[in-house]
Write a structure and sequence with these properties.
Layout: E1 4-7, E2 10-13, E3 16-17, H1 18-25, E4 29-33, H2 34-47, E5 54-58, H3 65-73, E6 77-80, H4 83-91, E7 99-101, H5 108-117, E8 121-124, H6 127-140, E9 144-151, E10 173-174, H7 178-186, E11 191-197, H8 207-226, E12 233-235, H9 254-265, E13 271-274, H10 278-281, E14 285-295, E15 302-305, H11 314-318, E16 324-326, E17 333-339, E18 348-356, E19 363-366, E20 388-392, E21 395-400, H12 405-410, H13 420-424
Parallel strand pairs: 4-20, 5-6, 5-13, 6-7, 7-8, 8-9, 9-10, 9-11, 11-12, 12-13, 15-17
Antiparallel strand pairs: 1-2, 2-3, 4-14, 14-15, 14-19, 16-19, 17-18, 20-21
Bound molecules: pyridoxal-5'-phosphate.
Length: 425
């Protein structure tokens, strides 16, 4: 469910007409609904059993400070994968004890920074990482709360670039090596082993692989306890899919996910952690764009919009589908290729798409653009970074300004041998 609906024939975000935002801020612009984010946080929390578990929002899905602060007010913590994300979470008021530090490449300085300021746990991905953590922790005289992320060797069934749970990916400790990894970590000073973690991929539309992975984790918890490890925390990761394409079956609901988790973990006797990202914010955002022109094609016409792959990378990166709708639908339909202005054939949002008819100057939205969207934007083709707006009821605010093109240019520095006078020679 989201809060982007037609009112009086024009698409609104909550109580604000999208056309008013386009008029004031220009396009392209990301627009987020705070009510949708809050609702998703509440629904997820209800589905996984209230206040007991830690729900650590995967910051990489949408790291904007206003988004993090909105979710922090709902009691969510943060799953971070870099010191930048850790600092963003702290700056947004998320308590350190609600921060989980994931990622396969944590550096010693990242470990030290988070250790000194506090966190719930580091999810370690290898014994060599545990050895580095041990050195950092002992040098600071602080015990590091740690879990191992296990690679359960389960094929998640989503796009290859966002599947992380098969044995040949870079993620986690292979499940068959887990007992040896915990034994090795126990022998290292400065590590307080407290848990186990798993995350098999993103945009999962079937509970089967998750259930399979969680079952393996449950069995491993038994084995770890038998070997004398005190496992008090189980981090089940994120990954639940959201509907992008109205013609596809709905993914499992948070309620169905919660029921499955309850059934599988009933006798685990641990505190659960969840790391949802996409589920919380994807449907809470749209990318609002203007049609520059409609260019005739050999087949279907090209709807050239002012947003491009640098603003929304998912279609070119993952062949991802985003529904594209006119802000003021006429009731007419068209079949079109929707493309951006960037000089790459991959700058294509949709091919042969049946959609509401649009003409030059019309506004369109790319729906379900609240996750893995603005955060992946780049300045490719010297296009300034896309601004972001948050709506709450009838209020709205710019939560990131459009990047200034002069600043973008000034950020480059000429080497001394190319300074103005020398270049003039
Ligand atoms: C990306 C990621 C998540 C979030 O995944 P979603 O599919 O957005 O829920 C959670 N945990 C880890 C370790 C991740 O890398």
């Amino acid at each position: 469910m989201d809060h982007f609906n037609l009112r009086d024939g024009a698409l609104h975000c909550e109580d604000v007409p999208l056309a008013a935002i386009a008029e004031a801020v220009g396009t392209p612009v990301y627009v987020y609904s705070a009510a949708t984010m809050r609702r998703h946080a509440q629904v997820f929390r209800g589905a996984v059993g209230g206040d007991g578990p830690l729900i650590a929002f995967a910051v990489k899905a949408n790291p904007n400070a206003a988004v993090l602060a909105t979710l922090a007010a709902e009691g969510l913590g943060a799953d971070v994968v870099s010191i930048g994300e850790y600092r963003r979470a702290m700056a947004a008021g998320i308590l350190p004890e609600r921060i989980v530090f994931s990622g396969v490449g944590k550096t010693a300085s990242e470990m030290a920074y988070a250790l000194q300021r506090g966190l719930c746990q580091f999810n370690l991905e290898s014994v060599v990482e545990a050895e580095m953590m041990s050195k950092v922790a002992t040098s600071l005289g602080i015990d590091a709360p740690v879990a191992f992320r296990i690679n359960p060797d389960v094929v998640a069934g989503s796009h290859a670039k966002i599947s992380t749970g098969a044995a040949d990916t870079k993620f986690g400790v292979p499940i068959d090596d887990a007992l040896a990894a915990y034994a090795a970590a126990r022998a290292l000073p400065g590590l307080a082993i407290q848990g186990i973690a798993v995350h098999i991929g993103s945009q999962l539309t079937d509970l089967g692989p998750l259930e399979h992975a969680f079952g393996k984790v449950g069995a491993l918890i038994g084995g770890l306890r038998a070997a004398g490890h005190d496992i008090r925390v189980a981090d089940l990761g994120g990954g639940l899919g959201v509907p992008y394409d109205r013609d596809m079956p709905l993914p499992p609901s948070p309620g169905e996910y919660g029921e499955m988790v309850k059934r599988i973990t009933a006798d685990w006797n641990v505190r659960l952690i969840f790391e949802p990202g996409r589920l919380i914010v994807a449907n809470a955002g749209v990318l609002l764009s203007e049609v520059v022109r409609v260019k005739p094609g050999v087949g279907d016409p090209f709807v050239v919009v002012d947003a491009a792959m640098n603003d929304l990378m998912r279609p070119s990166l993952y062949d991802a589908f985003h529904a594209i709708d006119p802000v003021v639908p006429t009731g007419e339909q068209m079949v079109a290729n929707v493309v951006g202005p960037v000089c790459e054939t991959g700058d294509t949002f949709a091919t042969g798409r049946k959609m509401g008819a649009v003409a030059a100057g019309d506004l369109v939205v790319f729906r379900t653009a609240g996750a893995y969207a603005a955060t992946m934007a780049s300045t490719y083709n010297s296009r300034p970074l896309t601004p972001e707006v948050m709506v709450s009821g009838d209020r709205w605010a710019v939560i990131r300004e459009r990047q200034n093109i002069s600043k973008l240019i000034e950020a480059d520095k000429l080497p001394p041998w190319l300074d103005g006078s020398a270049a003039a020679q």
